[in-house]
Design a protein that fits this description.
By secondary structure, the protein is mostly helical. The protein is built from two helices and no strands. Helix 1 packs antiparallel against helix 2.
Length: 96
């Protein structure tokens, strides 16, 4: 595998890990904020409790938007990080 392809693979792995971590953290923050505001956890699509349609739509829209922004920011940050390490000539793949 060429050196450039290996670095691209590392960048993709770092970006994916950062995006997953950011999405998880955003979900945790949303759940805590929702619980503080309403007194209960945000509704989920498979919940059969008495959540109204308005609450379900609001929770979905807020969660989706915040998680999407968090993932984009994390992915961009990871790309900048790996690019800066590549520019400095640091080895992102020490296994070689």
């Amino acid at each position: 595998m060429s050196d450039k392809k290996q670095q691209t693979l590392v960048a993709k792995l770092v970006g994916t890990a950062a995006a997953l971590a950011a999405a998880w953290a955003a979900q945790q923050i949303i759940a805590q904020a929702w619980k503080a505001k309403t007194g209960h956890k945000p509704p989920k699509p498979d919940d059969e409790d008495d959540s109204g349609l308005t609450e379900l739509v609001a929770a979905t829209a807020i969660s989706g938007a915040i998680v999407a922004v968090a993932r984009v920011l994390a992915t961009r940050g990871a790309a900048k990080f790996t690019a800066s390490k590549d520019d400095k000539g640091l080895d992102l793949n020490p296994a070689d």
